[in-house]
Amino acid sequence: MLILIFFAVSLQARVIDYVDVFVGTEADHGQMYPGAALPFGLVKLSPDTSSKGHAGYDYSCREIKGFSHTRLGGVGCSGAGGSVRIKPSFGMKTADTLDKSSEKAWPGFYSACFENGIKTELTVSYRVGFHRYTFPVSKEDVCILIDLSQSYAGSIDSGWEKIASDTIAGFTKGKNVCGNGFYKLYFAVKFDQCFDGIERSGKSLWSRFPSASKDRDAVIKLKVGISPVSVEKAVMECRKDLPGWDFQAPRENAEKIWEEKLGKVEIFGVSGELEEFRDLFYTCLYRSYLLPHNVTSSDGFYRPAGKQQTIRKTANQSRSFDYYSGWSSWDDYRKYSLVSLLEPDILSDIVLSALDMFAGEGIPAWAEGYWPSPSVRNEFINTIILDTIQKGLVEYDLEKAYSGIISSIDGNEQVEKPYQYYIAMKIAEILEKKQDIQKFRKKALSYKDFWAESQEDGEGNVRGFFTPDGEIVPKESVNKVDAHFYEGSLWHYRFFVPHDIYGLASLRGVGEKLADDLEYYFNSWKHMALNEPPLAYPFLFNFLGRPYQTQYWSRVYITDTVMSRYHNHGKFDSPVIRRVYKKQPAGWLETMDDDTGAMSSHFVFSAMGLFPVCMGEPYYVIGSPLFPKMVLHMKNGDLVIEAENASLSNKYIQSVSWNGKDLANTWLSYEQIKQGGKLDMVMSDTPNMQWGSDNSAAPPSLSK
Known about the structure:
Elements (H helix, E strand, L loop, with lengths): L1 H9 L25 E2 L6 E6 L13 E6 L16 E6 L5 E11 L2 E6 L4 E6 L3 E8 L6 E6 L7 E10 L2 E9 L6 E10 L5 E5 L2 E6 L8 E10 L3 H10 L7 H15 L2 E4 L6 H13 L5 E2 L6 E2 L9 E2 L10 E2 L3 H4 L2 H8 L1 H15 L11 E2 L9 H10 L8 H9 L8 H15 L3 H11 L6 E2 L12 E2 L34 H8 L2 H13 L23 H13 L2 E6 L2 E9 L19 H11 L1 E2 L7 E4 L6 E6 L2 E8 L7 E7 L2 E2 L4 E3 H4 L3 E8 L20
Parallel strand pairs: 12-21, 29-33
Antiparallel strand pairs: 1-2, 2-3, 3-5, 4-9, 5-6, 6-7, 7-8, 8-15, 9-14, 10-11, 11-12, 12-15, 13-14, 16-28, 17-20, 18-19, 22-23, 24-25, 26-27, 27-32, 28-29, 30-31, 30-33
Helix pairs in contact: 4-15, 6-7, 7-8, 7-9, 10-11, 12-13
């Protein structure tokens, strides 16, 4: 009997087996990578193909230039990172062809063979990349390339020295995304055996092992320690963060870490039609765990953002913590509301790291100046800070960072700055700054100054829009992306007032008209599902008395075939008709960057049926749960989301209860769910137009 029980347990799938790390890695369909990483780890060890993409990799390309140790998943321009590229070779060959059928990967592990017979296996710790190369018998010399000139956004400088007969160490300095600012990292490449020589080729090095595979297959292992602090710390990480030369142990440890993290969400009752979406869910959850980077050394030292010459020890702070860096918050700020549910302690350290940046003169919108790891941009970090503080997840003297937060507000004047001024108003309320509360409240409502009430849409219907100065613009420009707003049309920014949907409705006259406009927006396929500004729009119907349409559209855009007319810099030559998310290498819509988990976390939230419309405020709008049962194992208790009859066709909520009592509201507060609880719903393919339709059921709003 015991044997049978063990056999049954051994057949149970691991959660990490549902993750497909190749999703979104082909061409411009996500710009992601399949390599080994750990949750919020500094090292992201992945292949670099000759057709590189923003994260160094293109699934459709078979030519491999090597395996580098840093990158950001699915960001703009040419990405950033690509530090310390390693490639095994027979002779000094800078690229080799992959045997695509041999390529396999899952969280914490990557493996592939080249057509020349060399096998690559990669795994990681938080600060070290571990390579194991198996070379078949050959008359050619075994060589390993160490390329220090590589940086996706542009290399600035690098240097190295041989510090032992088996170790090379140095530094690499590269530009951040779109060439803004720079990062500097120190490295140590330590082999499990002495090399016979080092040959220079520009800024690249070739370590030689000439007799390694002359008579038998040869295995060469190496570890690459990465540190923002110093060469000495990089060397130390090879010894401390990933000790020994047993490849299997760190690989199993990486898998164990990922299983624990992703296993915090359990999904039950998955029918055949939902299996692909379950796999997409866990793949997206995995991608939500990759940024920011923990840039603290394993013995507790770090260099803070913007202060390259400063080294701090975390134990000397007000409390010991890990320092994080690497931001893409214009894109992924909503993601941190997911982190608050699953990783509150990690989020506390992330926000303390952010507050440290603001405890001065503020920070730039883009990652200018020095950063301890590759980074992108910083708008909306204030929403993450407020959200975490209002959830009681971090303790900090806000006064120290207050002026920095205020001086760092950036974005367009029409809607982005008013939203951030609302965040400033809420922070001023916490600090009881009465004059500032009134000042920022006025600024939070300043979006109204840019409302052109008689503005026609592209089809000639008078609807009102936000325009550059509140004046009428040619109707022909209303649907044009980048004509008036960054990466969006007037439509894509029309509903971007997350803090005051009721105030926006009053500009339109009544909420019914705004709901009609929103319905028209979706029915005419104007929605841009591949970029961040309009991501919350399916959930806005909950504010406008039509929750059933939130249930419909929030589900449609993660499970159904839709028409996409726009990409983030224009209009497709012809509409793209397909699902937004697919479990395949070309998984995301064309030009849809994942943006460090922004799009992945959107799928996770939408499938959960809970969405943070107004990031900064601690509540979640109720959507349409995709799975019959989901359990979130949170720190203080389990949140159970049970949706009776849930299926692809049953998108609509018929009734809702919270902890056994009927729920009239179309939202739940963090205060309600932080200790766990049970959210029960009954689903159907027919909308219930009554549930949540009353104004009193709508989520909070500044003007409510």
